[in-house]
Write a structure and sequence with these properties.
Strand content: 15-25%
Number of strands: 22
Radius of gyration: 22 Å
Number of helices: 11
Number of domains: 3
Shape: globular
Largest sheet: 9 strands, antiparallel
Length: 504
């Protein structure tokens, strides 16, 4: 298996960073503050949290073309030598396994019982081969063109379950259930129909006004700890896993998933990326292989009952081959020097294409104070969302985030942040770097792109992210890597040094 398979592993602790104590000075995976959940109506909402329901362009459904068959890699048992700073969580992520599986395989008394130089057994032997039946097209898993006409709030209010009357505090704002689904779809770029189907499958939140206490607290089935409780956190973990499966298949870097009993399942070579995402997220919340197989059938039944045949929504090709990358500039004013602190890493969360990079100003040891520096637009485009620490800029200007190129600016402070509906030119001010919009231990800018809902790697050979000629080049581990422009090279570093200094 390609070494890239393990590249998103270094900081899998998006949702667990508070529990594990993982911290990065400048750029760490993002998670919102712990919400309060289960509040009844009334439910005030952010103006940007609901979709307009306006179609950008007419969407024509097509019959999906056959998925190219991949040749699975040879799966064998292997060992891993612990390095300084390693945790079982990181090692588990490197090999697509779980902490519980490593503890059991190596007869450890606790997850903390490892030391540098210790050799651990890491099983990569598949116990089962999964089915090759396609559950959804790729275009249904991402928040892309097939969702141009979809109104999440209208769909939720069509049902009599808990979700229609639910509200929760997210980032200090009280949001309705439908607004939270929309927010997660926008943040992670995952399809809201998929999220709603999974929410009904695990929590009965569409059909049942009074689900069980466990379903109410953990509506997506992630019951391992209370840190994951509440709709927003459950949906965020789910969206992260969906992206892990989708891009793991899309980039040919993921072949094994695990159920809760530790059994490894190898993907069938006949899947598509959308189905791989569904299989992965259901495996993480299934007790064993048999339960997982039943879950796949149930997902297909529920999706059809709620929304009809998912392949009626298929958009192919999801990314037209003639698409070109937008011309972009560095996201700060000319003659200013910022520092490249986070090399290519997932667009949001801990799994998926390495679509994002991080920068800080020259304000040293700022902590989470709002920076005085200004983030500026990398290209012309319309601001569609400006809330929860994020600005989403639509470069094709149609006002829908699922078509064309979209740029994510994350950790933008509320103070002075550009408003939604503003048409920007390259170089116009966006706002100030901060810690808003997810968990961050220091003010910085997280910058990423997506195309038709798909996160695009910074060094994609067809669509490289060129910022005033600087192209971020990834390594096998997130947050590492370089910026390259001709013979000039800058290396990502949690520092303010010449090796990571970039002058516009």
């Amino acid at each position: 298996m390609s070494a890239i398979a393990w590249r998103w592993a270094f900081c899998l602790v998006l949702v667990f960073s508070v529990l594990t104590g993982c911290r990065r000075e400048f750029a760490i995976p993002d998670v919102a503050e712990e919400p309060s959940f289960g509040q009844p109506r009334p439910r005030p909402e952010s103006a940007s949290a609901e979709p307009s329901g306006r179609a950008a362009e007419p969407i024509v459904a097509v019959t999906p073309s056959p998925t190219p068959t991949r040749v699975p890699p040879e799966m064998t048992a292997t060992t891993y030598t612990v390095r300084p700073g390693d945790t079982l969580l990181r090692i588990a992520a490197l090999y697509g396994t779980t902490v519980e599986s490593l503890v059991r395989l190596n007869q450890l008394n606790s997850p903390d019982q490892i030391a540098a130089g210790q050799v651990l057994r890491v099983s990569r032997e598949a116990d089962k081969i999964g089915p090759g039946d396609l559950l959804i097209p790729d275009s249904e898993l991402v928040y892309g063109p097939s969702y141009a006409d979809f109104d999440t709030r209208a769909e939720v209010e069509r049902h009599a379950g808990l979700l229609a009357d639910y509200s929760e505090t997210v980032d200090g704002q009280v949001l309705s259930g439908s607004a939270i689904v929309t927010l997660v779809a926008q943040q992670y770029s995952v399809g809201p129909r998929v999220l709603l189907t999974l929410l009904e499958q695990r929590g009965e939140w569409l059909s049942n006004a009074n689900p069980s206490p466990t379903q109410r607290q953990f509506p997506l089935g992630y019951t391992q700890d209370t840190f994951r409780a509440g709709l927003y956190r459950q949906l965020s973990v789910t969206a992260n896993a969906l992206n892990g499966g989708f891009y793991g298949w899309w980039e040919d870097t993921l072949w094994l998933i695990q159920t809760r009993d530790g059994a490894f399942i190898q993907f069938s070579p006949d899947l598509n990326a959308g189905t791989a995402g569904i299989q992965k997220v259901l495996a993480e919340t299934a007790s064993d292989y048999e339960a997982w197989m039943a879950d796949l059938t149930r997902f297909s039944q529920l999706y059809s009952a709620l929304f009809g045949d998912p392949f009626d929504y298929a958009i192919e090709p999801l990314i037209p081959p003639q698409t070109t990358a937008p011309t972009m500039v560095l996201p700060w004013a000319e003659d200013e020097t910022w520092y490249y602190t986070g090399g290519p890493h997932p667009g949001l969360g801990t799994q998926g294409a390495f679509a994002a990079v991080d920068f800080v100003t020259g304000e040293r040891h700022l902590g989470c104070a709002v920076s005085q520096g200004w983030v500026t637009a990398v290209a012309p485009g319309l601001v569609v969302v400006s809330d929860h620490g994020m600005v989403l800029q639509d470069l094709d200007g149609d006002g829908f985030l699922g078509t064309g190129w979209v740029v994510l600016y994350l950790h933008i402070a509320t103070q002075d942040r550009v408003s939604s509906g503003v048409q920007l030119q390259a170089g116009d001010r966006i706002g100030h770097p901060s810690c808003e919009g997810g968990y961050s231990s220091a003010s910085h800018l997280h910058l990423a792109r997506r195309l038709n809902g798909v996160w695009i790697a910074t060094d994609d050979p067809t669509w490289p992210m060129s910022l005033s000629g600087w192209v971020p080049v990834s390594t096998d581990e997130p947050y590492r890597g370089t910026l390259q422009r001709g013979d000039e090279v800058r290396t990502a570093c949690e520092c303010w040094e010449s090796r990571n200094a970039v002058t516009h």
